[in-house]
Amino acid sequence: MIQIKKREFKKIVNKLKKEFCVKEGHTGHWQIIVSYKGHILSRTKCSEGRDDIPPIWAQQIKKRLNFSSDEEFRDFIKCPMTCKDYLNLLKARDVL
Q1: β-pair partners for 39
Q2: 29 pairs with which residues across the strands?
Q3: Cα–Cα distances in angstroms (integers) from residue 34 to residues 31, 41, 50, in the given order
Q4: How far apart are CA 33 and CA 22, in angstroms?
Q5: In this predicted model, what pLDDT tens digit does every residue of 46-56 receive, in sequence order?
Q6: Handedness of CA 45, 47, 48, 52 (dihedral sign)
Q7: Nearest residue to 58 (alpha-carbon basis) of 10, 4, 14
Q8: pLDDT (tens digit per residue) in 58-96
Q9: At what angle do helices 6-16 and 83-92 cross, to 10 degrees?
Q10: In 3D, which of 81, 39, 36 has the Cα closest to residue 62?
Q11: HEC string of the chain?
């Protein structure tokens, strides 16, 4: 299982903003809705507290963003995978 930090989640959101429409909401949890050309791709959330994101929540975020493995998710966080690469990955998987 993968564990991510809040700043890494913020990095994910900022990266997604380059190609996708990202709506952020704050209701005790940081709620993210990701859409592309009017089609909602994902809804996910993250606690606004100070602690790291627990592995079980990180797995849910990974699943909701349509990553099939921890390696793909780490690549997206650590920047070898660009937002365009992610977009192509989603198209190849018929998500878009």
Answers
A1: 36
A2: 47
A3: 10, 5, 24
A4: 6
A5: 877 777 888 89
A6: negative
A7: 4
A8: 899 999 999 999 999 999 988 888 888 998 999 998 888
A9: 70
A10: 81
A11: CCCECHHHHHHHHHHHCCCCEEEEEECCEEEEEEEECCEEEEEEEEECCCCCECHHHHHHHHHHCCCCCHHHHHHHHHCCCCHHHHHHHHHHCCCC
Tokens for 51, please give them. Answer: 């602690």
What is the token pair recorded at 31? 């709620």
Q: Tokens in use for 71?
A: 């390696």
| Residues counted in the chain | 96
